[in-house]
Specification:
single chain; alpha/beta; Leucine Aminopeptidase, subunit E, domain 1; six-stranded mixed sheet; 5 helices; binds ligand AR6
């Protein structure tokens, strides 16, 4: 059984075996949680991202996939970078968003991670409506077959926290 916990705060301040980054396919950093992780984690993470671009992901990491690097100065062993879909009003990309959670947990299993912290993927720059994103995230984690013991959703503000809380029993 995987326990789901909710925390309101900054994901770069939490302690976990693996911290998930809402990256973009370039793997070369950006704003939002991606920028915060690279800032606090230090340049070692970006160095490994660049190496991944040069070796396995010359065309970028596809949307819905995940890949791990070291975690630099963060209080974690690994950062798992995943690329959420940009929200579309015309196309249902829910499965790609769910895939970010599934693939991140699959990568976590490969590493032997037992605790994983997720941000609310795609709900910032990529504009996914928070309540819908929370439903997809919680469902994907609940349905995942994983050896991860604890998944913590780290929500940046009260609105995000409330949206995720509404998806869990009291
Ligand atoms: N800790 C936890 N959550 C955070 C933090 C933080 N330090 N900072 C922001 N959030 P976003 P996306 C929340 O934009 O929508 C980047 O430029 C934020 O409030 O970080 O998947 C990448 O390089 C929001 O709820 O990621 C990509 O280009 C959630 O994290 C693009 O943005 C996700 O917001 C990815 O966009």
């Amino acid at each position: 059984m995987t326990t789901i916990t909710l925390v309101q705060g900054d994901i770069t301040r939490v302690s976990a075996d693996a911290i998930v980054n809402a990256a973009n396919s370039s793997l070369l950093g950006g704003g939002g949680v991606d920028g915060a992780i690279h800032r606090r984690g230090g340049p070692a993470i970006l160095r490994e991202c660049r190496a991944l671009r040069a070796s396995r992901y010359g065309k970028g990491l596809p949307t819905g996939r995940a890949v791990a690097t070291i975690a630099g100065d963060l209080d974690a062993r690994w950062v798992i970078h995943t690329v959420g879909p940009v929200y579309s009003e015309t196309e249902d990309q829910s499965d790609l968003l769910a895939s970010c959670y599934r693939e991140s947990l699959r990568v976590a299993d490969g590493l032997g991670a037992r605790t994983v912290a997720f941000p609310a993927i795609s709900t910032g720059v990529f504009r996914w409506p928070m309540t819908d994103a929370a439903r997809i995230a919680v469902t994907a984690v609940r349905e995942a077959e994983t050896a991860v013991r604890e998944v913590g959703f780290v929500l940046f503000d009260e609105r995000a926290y409330a949206a995720f809380a509404s998806q869990l029993p009291d």
